[in-house]
Specification:
By secondary structure, this protein is α/β, with parallel strands linked by helices. The protein contains 16 helices and eight strands. Strand 6 and strand 7 form a beta hairpin. Bound molecules: nicotinamide-adenine-dinucleotide and fe (ii) ion.
Length: 386
């Protein structure tokens, strides 16, 4: 456990079914008259932006919508959206969507107030000095928890790797968690993004950066997600399950904000960066095998996670409870019909060395894994997925 820990949290969180109705009050509290909504084509096409836009316009607020955020955007794509946003002299940015839209909105907000080049921010040559213009984040996947983290992830195509910008100045000013906005989230995205949220919570709980703040949110996230992910998948219109998932995802994000993800996310980055496998899916397929690899050094913590998941561990040793927890992860993935044929994505034995080299660069996360992950270990884990 870290000896020093801190958490910079979101200014205001409004949650619950129908909470989107509060949007105009939130914007008014920042005295913003011109705002830009950053979203993506899928969210736009699903009609989710209509209601907030109508409410804002009825309150006399000028709304401009940018709805072409690409999935898991590159540095250049985020720059293009930033230019489009700047053309509209806005005082506030609202991100509506999954992690792709929210991360883009976070970066655009700080590029308004900091004279930096995004590429230099990504490679660590530039630093943010000022907070961005005010933000409101409205997640519609559950999800990355990006609304609660100081992180924004961009793809750097020439390195075929996703890179995380981590800076407290990107923590959102306000968040609305309305489960009604996630009712029509397609089944496979519900499964993949829900597993991403579970990865965040589990990884933060076992991370070397784990601390009492992250433990509290991580355990609660594990409970909420474990009890509701199957219902959200099988019965998308179940509002109680959708609310659990949104809260669980945000709690996972809060855990990231004070702890860190570990080897699952590090090994996942090359799968996204080079082979464009969606973030949640690559994490989901890695999670059980990486936890199996960590078992020897995490027995007690895995036993805690088993209890949080509602697994019956009466009379079990910590090791047995830990094994039950790992088995539960395999079952969960099966129940959610999560599959990824890596060979069909062009990955084979010959691709492994490049993937290992790329993953080994993600020291920001690998260094927090409770067990050292060697290149041989990575090879073993990747091979299991082939
Ligand atoms: N900043 C962070 O802390 C953090 C953490 C984890 C992941 N990420 C990043 O977030 C990105 C992934 O985000 P994501 O998994 O949320 O996916 P996403 O934002 O790429 O969205 C996935 C798809 O879901 C659709 N969608 C979203 N909400 C919908 C809804 N309610 N109804 C119908 N369709 C909907 C979108 O149109 C899109 O096609 C990646 O770039 C990843 O690296 C960031
Ligand atoms: Fe993630």
């Amino acid at each position: 456990m870290s000896s020093l820990y801190s958490l910079l949290n979101i200014g205001k969180i409004i949650a619950g079914a129908g909470s989107i109705a509060q949007i105009a009050d939130v914007v008014a509290s920042f005295e913003a008259k011109n705002i830009v909504i950053i979203t993506d084509q899928g969210v736009w096409d699903s009609g989710l932006v209509e209601k907030p836009k109508t409410i804002l316009e009825a309150a006399g607020i000028n709304v401009h919508v940018i709805h072409d955020t690409p999935p898991e955007p590159t540095v250049d794509q985020v720059n293009a959206i930033c230019q489009a946003t700047k053309a509209f002299a806005c005082q506030m940015i609202i991100g509506i969507g999954g992690g792709s839209s929210i991360d883009t909105a976070k970066i655009v907000s700080v590029l308004f107030t900091n004279d930096v080049i995004l590429r230099e921010l990504v490679n660590g040559k530039a630093q943010l000095k000022r907070k961005g213009i005010p933000t409101l984040m409205i997640p519609t996947t559950a999800g990355t928890g990006a609304e609660a983290t100081p992180n924004a992830i961009v793809l750097v195509p020439e390195e075929e790797l996703k890179i995380g910008i981590v800076n407290e100045k990107m923590v959102s000013d306000s968040v609305i968690l309305d489960p009604e906005l996630t009712i029509n989230l397609p089944k496979h995205i519900t499964a993949n993004t829900g597993m991403d949220a579970l990865c965040h919570a589990i990884e933060c709980y076992i991370s070397k950066k784990a601390n009492p703040l992250s433990d509290t949110f991580a355990i609660k996230a594990i409970t909420l997600i474990s009890r509701s992910i199957r219902t959200a998948y099988n019965d998308g219109s179940n509002l109680a399950a959708r609310e659990d998932m949104l809260l669980g995802a945000m709690f996972g994000g809060i855990s990231i904000a004070t702890s860190s993800t570990t080897a699952v996310h590090a090994l996942s980055y090359p799968l996204g960066g080079k082979y464009h496998i969606p973030h949640g899916l690559s994490n989901a397929i890695l999670l059980p095998d990486v936890m199996k690899f960590n078992l020897d050094v995490c027995e007690e913590k895995f036993a805690d996670i088993a209890i949080a998941m509602g697994i019956d561990v009466k009379g079990c040793t910590a090791r047995d409870a830990a094994k039950k927890m790992i088995n539960n992860l395999y079952f969960m993935i099966k129940d959610l019909e999560i599959k990824c044929d890596l060979r069909a994505k062009g990955i084979n034995e010959e691709s492994l060395e490049d993937m290992i080299e790329a993953a080994a660069k993600v020291t920001r996360l690998l260094n927090n894994n409770p067990k050292i992950v060697t290149k041989d270990d990575m090879r073993m884990i990747y091979k299991k997925l082939l």
